[in-house]
């Protein structure tokens, strides 16, 4: 049950530090050595390209893991929207490997692609929260999320668990191919830092709720912007806000705004800017913040500590750049939660939505 929590979503948001630690217990031994089925690692090594297939939040988690996988596994990672690939499979590489990300393991759109992959003889891995689920049974391999049941329709802990589980897979594969960055990436330690960062953010709920007040209670639209990893988090942040607050929200690559979309910015349009500590892009995103502020946008900045400046709204403790999507998404989950709550909506059961989508 949800215990003393008013909604499952808040409980599940709060469970995320424990889920991060649980994954370290499952996927590493006491000495911190990563334990991933060797057959999965070998199949990844055999492949020349990784295709991540998913829907909704799981699709966004795939993007959040792309850079980490590419860096450590040394292969291109391509994302596919399950409902598109089921009918429009693009030309595949010579030795493809498919990863299906699915909290429920029952998403019909993803299954449609898995059926095709099996027909083509393409090896596959399902990363899922539900052992014995359809996608788990039908794929070559399974990696479990161990996040515990996710009841709220809006997915939270499955997103962060997916990124963490893929971090273990990337570390194991990178180590097997003697990738230097993999050798230097202590995933257990870095995830413990992530868990602490999440805890610090969770202790700031009142501050985060106060940012929603006046910003998201009556607005019809909003934007999340960011670059690189923060762009990927923007996609997830905006999906979360849309589905439970019914605010039309777009997650946008910050630099792309000036190529058209900035025309939508008017007085008091909420723009939430995500700025993790990536020196290559942080200053550019700041520039985009100034551009929208000059056009009247109501800006909220969500910034990693080392990139923070005076006047930032929400500051997040630093984590390893591979894992910043996990820590940066937490405030956006809370923002969606409080926006829904302040608008008097049923946080856990948004209209028109079901927890698992078993029709195409
Ligand atoms: C969003 C959400 C959906 C699911 C999507 C995929 O909060 O819950 O977008 O992420 O339907 O579901 P799974 O991961 O079960 O395949």
Automatic annotation (TrEMBL):
Highest taxon of source: Bacteria
Sorted UniProt keywords: Aminotransferase, Cytoplasm, Glutamine amidotransferase, Repeat, Transferase
Cellular component aspect of the GO annotation: cytosol
Enzyme Commission number(s) from the entry: 2.6.1.16
Subcellular location: Cytoplasm
GO biological process: one example: carbohydrate metabolic process
Catalytic activity line of the entry: D-fructose 6-phosphate + L-glutamine = D-glucosamine 6-phosphate + L-glutamate
SIS domain: residues covered: 40-179, 212-350
Active site per UniProt: 355
GO molecular function, one term: carbohydrate derivative binding
Role, per record: Catalyzes the first step in hexosamine metabolism, converting fructose-6P into glucosamine-6P using glutamine as a nitrogen source.
Quaternary organization: Homodimer.
Record protein name field: Glutamine--fructose-6-phosphate aminotransferase [isomerizing]
Origin species: Pseudolactococcus raffinolactis
């Amino acid at each position: 049950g949800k215990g003393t929590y008013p909604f499952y979503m808040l409980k599940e948001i709060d469970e995320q530090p424990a889920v991060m630690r649980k994954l370290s217990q499952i996927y590493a031994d006491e000495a911190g050595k990563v334990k991933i089925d060797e057959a999965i690692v070998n199949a990844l090594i055999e492949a020349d390209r990784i295709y991540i297939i998913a829907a909704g939040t799981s699709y966004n988690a795939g993007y959040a893991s792309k850079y980490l996988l590419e860096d450590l596994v040394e292969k291109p990672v391509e994302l596919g929207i399950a409902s598109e690939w089921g009918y429009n499979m693009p030309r595949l590489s010579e030795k493809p490997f498919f990863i299906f990300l699915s909290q429920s393991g029952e998403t019909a759109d993803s299954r449609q692609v898995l059926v095709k992959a099996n027909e083509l003889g393409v090896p596959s891995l399902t990363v899922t929260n539900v052992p014995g689920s359809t996608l788990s049974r039908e794929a070559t391999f399974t990696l479990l999320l161990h996040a515990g049941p996710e009841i709220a329709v809006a997915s939270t802990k499955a997103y962060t668990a997916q990124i963490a589980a893929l971090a273990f897979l990337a570390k194991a594969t990178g180590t097997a191919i003697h990738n230097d960055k993999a050798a230097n990436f202590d995933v257990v330690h870095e995830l413990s830092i992530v868990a602490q960062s999440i805890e610090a953010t969770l202790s700031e709920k009142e501050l985060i709720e106060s940012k929603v007040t006046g910003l998201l209670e009556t607005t019809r639209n909003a934007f999340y912007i960011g670059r690189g990893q923060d762009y990927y988090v923007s996609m997830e942040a905006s999906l979360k806000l849309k589905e439970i607050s019914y605010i039309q929200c777009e997650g946008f690559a910050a630099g792309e705004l000036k190529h058209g979309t900035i025309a939508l910015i008017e007085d008091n349009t909420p723009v939430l800017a995500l700025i993790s500590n990536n020196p290559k892009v942080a200053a550019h995103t700041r520039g985009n913040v100034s551009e929208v502020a000059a056009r009247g946008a109501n800006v909220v900045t969500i910034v990693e500590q080392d990139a923070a400046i005076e006047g930032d709204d929400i500051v997040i403790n630093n984590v390893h750049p591979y894992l910043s999507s996990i820590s940066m998404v937490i405030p956006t989950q809370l923002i969606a939660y409080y926006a829904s709550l302040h608008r008097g909506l049923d946080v856990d059961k948004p209209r028109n939505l079901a927890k698992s989508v078993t029709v195409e």
